[in-house]
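Notes to self, Small ribosomal subunit protein uS8c:
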Amino acid sequence: MGNDTIANMITSIRNANLGKIKTVQVPATNATRDIAKILLREGFIEDSIDDNENKKNVLVSNPKYQGRKKKSYITTLRRISKSGLRIYSNHKEIPKVLGGMGIVILSTSGGIMTDREARQKKIGGELLCYVW
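result:
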């Protein structure tokens, strides 16, 4: 069985949101860095830092919470395309999440980007995850 770093990152962030944990550490790869940049730009996480601790590349993310009760900005984070079943879409058929309130993260020939950027550039690709 292979290592799916994107699924590990999504699961770690989802578990941190359920436990209201402030920091999440995942293995740093180009894909996880790009997804963290998108989540940071869209306002779902506060910070993302590359940490070279004990010669291991680790990406440290801080999920964003609001209010005293620490309600998470990420209500649902779900992996779409899996290692056993890849799901692709062209730019016309990219799904909209909650009428545009959420985002779909895609892996395209132009790199990892959101659904809005892919529609604007008219590029399709592999659907990685839903975030809302």
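- The chain has a mean pLDDT of 94.
- The longest helix spans residues 5-19.
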